[in-house]
Amino acid sequence: MTPVVGGWSLRRRVITLLVVVGVLLLGLAAAEGTVAARNRTQVDAILNKTGPLRVQAQELLNALLDQETAVRGYAVSGDPADLSPYQAGVKQEQDRVASMRKLLDDYPQIDQELRILEQRAEQWRQTVAVPVVSTTQRSGTAAGQALITDQARQQFDQVRAAVEGLQQEILAARQQAADDVRSSSNLLVVLLIVAALVVVVAGGVLLLSLDRMVIRPLTGLADQVREVAEGDYQHGIAVVGPPEFLQLGEDVDAMRRKIAKDLAEVREARERIEWVNGQLQKQAEELTRSNRDLEQFAYVASHDLQEPLRKVASFCQLLQRRYAGQLDERADQYIAFAVDGAQRMQRLINDLLAFSRIGRLTTGFVEVDLNKVMGDVAGQTEAARQYADAELTWTELPVIRGEEPLLTNLLANLVSNSIKFRRPDVPPKVHISARLVGDEWEISCQDNGIGIEPEFADKIFVIFQRLHSKDAYPGTGIGLAIVKKIVEYHGGQVWVDTDVPEGTAIRFTLPALPKDVEAAAAAAALESPEAATPATDDATGEALPAGEVSAALPEQSTGPDRPDRADNPPEGGRTGDMRETVG
């Protein structure tokens, strides 16, 4: 990584701008809140104080006028009923004064005017109203009217003047509150406009900064990257702007250099691959030609070589039959060697032809029932089993996809080997079993023969590899090589299990059908805990792994388990001295 160039980073610049704008907006918001609160107080004063005070002042004037009118009427009529408005006016005056005093905490001038009004109203009642009422009650209407003079009228005019002074003061207070509301409202609008200007200016500064520090450098970087993407991998990438973009440009240029280096290596590798492909093409053509030659050789071996060998073998056999005992013992031995050599050559040629045709002459894969295949194998090996007093058994075997002739050849080779490599004076026993392991069938061929040493477990599958002389055990040494090739042709593997206590166990795998895998999985899921008794392999007696118990197939028998002799008729799937457990 290249060190970051000094200077303010884009993050730092943006954060600084946002902090400044935020502080300004917070200050404006605080000022607007203060002005708004003051405006709300002023509006409240207009609506809930000065307005009601004006109404109550007018009602107070009406109450005083009612009192003055009632006193004049009573002085004229002398009727006590005419004094009811006077008494009601006094009561209304007291109520209005008490109500107004509740609203005058913030208005001392209005309170002072109200006190003046109270004093003048009380003075008028004491000097005019009360004397007129009492005189009229004592001396009659004439005496009462005599007290209503110009001086009495002047005193009431003073009361009216006090009311007018009170109203003027209330109007002045209301006008002042209205002016304050108008001023605070104007100030609030100004603050909002200033906040809007701050936001607009900050947005403009941010846009200009982004254009200068982000968009232009990114556009320049994108143009240069496009040039590189179009194939100019030698074009150096240079970026201007804040440190982040300088670092980004350096990283992109480092990536360009690495891509250019990798592309150069890819070109070299492609050239090498093209050269190798050319060589492989030549070798493929050579292999094709060689295969044609081998096919021609196979044809010659199966036709042209067979005829001379048959002639040699036939005439040697004629010599053996006609001149046996007429020549000396050494001549008879030479003739026997010639007959045996010709016959062994025929067997080798036939086995080689069979080996070469595996996977080349194919009939296509079909579903093959290995139980039916084992029936065919039992028929093919019947003579050998009768001769060796061998016992062949097998459990229920699966259905797989493959070529039936090849699978028959595979199992026949294994059974024949198990019979051939038997221990002296021990009747051979051969058992074929199968179990499902994952998505493959593992099929075992277990016998009680001479066994195989672990160090030779891999050599026995090599063509012409023999562990014994042909005099001890006849054969061409190609049978297990054919087995291995057939198994691998079907997608499986074959090996020797060296852990068995007795005899030989050859195991091989074949792909299982999807329905068998699904059925085994369903059976394992439904298996109850009581059914968890460990199962054992029928061939080895070993406990099967927990994941494979449900896949092991049970052995089935079609007849009673008792030996049959060669002179008894076959029954229950038994042949001569062999017991066949048929699935």
Would you give an account of this structure?
With 583 residues, the chain is an alpha+beta fold. The chain contains 13 helices and seven strands. Helix 11 packs antiparallel against helix 12. The chain starts with 9 loop residues before the first helix and ends in a 57-residue tail after the last helix. The N terminus and C terminus are likely disordered.
Map the helices and strands.
Layout: H1 10-77, H2 84-101, H3 108-139, H4 141-147, H5 150-229, H6 243-303, H7 306-323, H8 329-357, E1 366-369, H9 370-380, H10 382-388, E2 391-394, E3 399-402, H11 404-420, E4 429-437, E5 440-447, H12 479-489, E6 494-497, E7 505-511, H13 514-526
Parallel strand pairs: 2-4
Antiparallel strand pairs: 1-3, 4-5, 5-7, 6-7
SSE arrangement, N to C: HHHHHHHHEHHEEHEEHEEH
Structural class: alpha+beta
Biggest β-sheet strands, sense, barrel: 5 strands, mixed
Regions with pLDDT < 50 over 5+ consecutive residues? Answer: 1-6, 530-536, 538-583
Mean pLDDT: 77
From the N-terminal CA to the C-terminal CA, the straight-line distance is 72 Å
* Secondary structure tally: strands: 7
**Which strand order do you get reading across the main beta sheet?**
2-4-5-7-6
Give the DSSP E fraction (strand runs of 2 or more residues).
5-15%
The coarse overall form would be elongated
Q: Over the alpha carbons, how many angstroms does the gyration radius reach? A: 62 Å
The number of helical runs is 13
**What's the helical proportion of residues?**
55-70%
Oligomer: single chain
